[in-house]
Amino acid sequence: MAMRESEITAESGCRALRDHAADRANLARVRYGPITDAARLATLLNDREIVRHPVTIEFDARPLQPGELAHVERIGALPVDGFRIVVYPTLRDREDAWLAAALYQLVLVNYGEIASSEVAEVFGAVLLGLDIETYYRRLCALADGLVESGEGA
Questions:
Q1: What are the sequence ranges of the domains in the chain?
Q2: Which end of the chain, N or C, is surrounded by fewer C-beta atoms within 10 Å?
Q3: pLDDT of residue 149
Q4: How confident is the model at residue 1 (pLDDT cuts 50, 70, 90)?
Q5: DSSP state letter for 62
Q6: Between β-strands 55-59 and 70-74, what pairing exists: parallel, antiparallel or unpaired?
Q7: 56 φ/ψ angles, rounded to the nearest 5 degrees
Q8: Within 10 A of 64 (CB to CB), how many other CB atoms are there?
Q9: CB burial class (10 A; 0-12, 13-18, 19+) of residue 89?
Q10: Of 10-14, 37-41, 149-153, which range is least confident?
Q11: Could you give the CA distance from residue 147 to residue 52 in angstroms, rounded to a whole number?
Q12: Is 49 helix (H, G, I), strand (E, B) or coil?
């Protein structure tokens, strides 16, 4: 049964976006398994059914805000020009850590600013093969660790 226009709500739109992100992440899991290393991430980043635009990963603290593990920057004027995900450089030697941080950012590449933290958590958790709460706690612990060490301050 089709949804009538009057039945479309912000909540149903958010749910549809979350479901679409989960669907894309599940498709990636079928194709590549859990994204547990840089090689699998590289393959994922080149799959336009999963990641809509070109993406590179860079390690650079300069553009990050205090306590921020990573963020997305558009490279050119249009999304098709690509994006870079900037990751806090001390995470470079901890592949599990920077993968978790980078995967959280991919929803901004796919959906832009309408992507919520909930959508990012679902997407990243599915890609890593974790439940959402575990993924969320992992990201919080990473961010807290940067702040406590004075690195992300």
A1: 13-149
A2: N
A3: 64
A4: very low
A5: T
A6: unpaired
A7: -120, 155
A8: 17
A9: middle
A10: 149-153
A11: 32
A12: coil
